[in-house]
Amino acid sequence: MGIYLPIAEISVNVFVLLAMGAAVGFLSGMFGVGGGFLITPLLIFYNIPPAIAVATGANQVIASSFSGVLSHMKRGTLDFKLGGVLLAGGIVGSTGGIFVFAFLRRLGQLDLFISLLYVVLLGTVGGLMLVESVNALRATRSGAAPVLKKSGQHNWIHRLPLKMRFRASKLFVSVIPVLGLGAGIGFLSSIMGVGGGFIMVPALIYLLKVPTNVVIGTSLFQIIFTSAYTTLVHATTNQTVDVVLAFLLMAGGVAGAQYGAKAGQRLRGEQLRALLALLVLAVAIRLAIDLFVTPPNLYSLSSAGLN
Amino acid sequence: MTGPKAFATAILLSLLTATVPAKAQTPPVEGIQIGLSTDNVSITAGFSGADLTIFGSLENPDPLVARQGRYDVIVVLEGPPRPVVVRRKDRVLGVWVNLESETFENVPMSYSVATTRPLQDITEPNSYRQLSLGASNLYMQPADDGDSPATIEEFTAALRSRKTATGLYSENVGGVQFLSQNLFRATVRLAPNVPVGTHKARAFLFKSGVFIKESSAQLEIRKSGFEQSIFRVAHNYSFLYGVFAISLAMLTGWLGRVIFRKD
């Protein structure tokens, strides 16, 4: 069944999009990530113009994050104060990102920049995760107890000024890295159409030493607002949010996420992480190939009236 | 998916006016008329391209010439003109990057041609150039005249070939058929991604390879329906549209949890 996307201005198959949403939703439920980093490249592979894929991806992320936050609120695994500070940084980063986005689009370098960012970020995160999870798998197989980092071990981040207390996270830390992290994620959100959970979660755990149980809820909480802000700004400055496309992805996504969460409970943590790492690397490699392979058309047309 | 629909447009029976009083001995000059039954066409969401039929008639045709098939008609449906940027990718450190670009003013967004015979059989390349007729003879005005002619030529050729590849520039040889001595029917293709706006239909009459007359009509192509309303809201009330998109996402997220809850 075909449907015409009003903003992307192309006809697509409804079931392909629902299935895409459901598959990504399943994975995001299983791994506890928003799924924006999968949705946006998939949309680009499906010939949706990258500018629309990014803005619509940000919109879709709101739905999956909101759904996730509701269950974390119920369990009380959410630090509103930490989320709020991250968010303040996020708004600043996102605003900067939108300007860079519009500027690159005018230069004709937006598609390249999006692909490069994806390849670098997904490649790095996927590679690190794969190494870490394979080591963990080996360690459990050989029977050795996993080496835990000593708690209370402080790094340079904890020596920065402007400290603030975050009660729910049992944390007393400078606001500078928190704001900076929020800004970085906000920037990525507006340029890549991702929530940024796949960077936020490890950063909160390893850099700020936030207890793991509040990390996902807090990260999702701030992602809702950053993505909402990104969606709003893309909608007003670039008119690139396609609600029909977003709705199809969300509908498939929220359904898939609930089943994915259940399936995820049956797998062990390091197995899950290894699988996610492979998936992330696969997307990065696929995007990297497109950068290097000679394109079928060296010439492209675009309307000169943009902005 | 709806299949190609034919937008039949009715006959402008100007051929009836062919009963001109024979006042002089000199043969009257031939003329051409085309008519559209409607001045606007609405395309809906499932639009997957269509054939647009335009009827027309010759005025005062010479029966002998007509019998020998020496009248040729070319019908063009030209989309609204817009500025276009053509970019070329080049390899930088192994990666394909958009480097050179050329901006052209007033490029017709679409250009569909229908002819009685192959273009090269109708008349000389020179007369096509003078008439600026045919996708390969359209003059593309570069925004920056300072660029070298070779570059401009290269990007003009690329622009034409991309437009042809996406179906926006098309040629339908044999798309104009004479139904009688006076009456003809032209079928031009509307690509699935046909631009909205004011299109200009033009008909050119040739007699034994010599250009005789031109006639034109205007046609508005609009998108209609639900999708078009969304497009309009997204552009005219973009802030409200953004708020709506966010609310829809939150509602979907909440509903999804209520309906599919597994914990």
TrEMBL record, chain A:
Its main location: membrane. The keyword Repeat does not apply. It is found in: Cell membrane; Membrane. It is a multi-pass membrane protein. The chain crosses the membrane at residues 12-45, 51-70, 82-104, 110-131, 168-185, 273-293. Keywords: Cell membrane, Membrane, Transmembrane, Transmembrane helix. Pfam families: TauE. It comes from the Bacteria. InterPro entries: TM_pro_TauE-like (IPR002781), TSUP/Inactive_protease-like (IPR051598). One of its GO terms (cellular component) is plasma membrane. PANTHER family: MEMBRANE TRANSPORTER PROTEIN MJ0441-RELATED, MEMBRANE TRANSPORTER PROTEIN YTNM-RELATED. Belongs to the 4-toluene sulfonate uptake permease (TSUP) (TC 2.A.102) family. This is Probable membrane transporter protein. It comes from Mesorhizobium kowhaii. The lineage of its organism: Bacteria, Pseudomonadati, Pseudomonadota, Alphaproteobacteria, Hyphomicrobiales.
Automatic annotation (TrEMBL), chain B:
Residues 1-24 form the signal peptide. InterPro entries: CHP02186-rel_TM. The chain crosses the membrane at residues 239-260. It comes from the Bacteria. Keywords: Membrane, Signal, Transmembrane, Transmembrane helix. This is TIGR02186 family protein. The lineage of its organism: Bacteria, Pseudomonadati, Pseudomonadota, Alphaproteobacteria, Hyphomicrobiales.
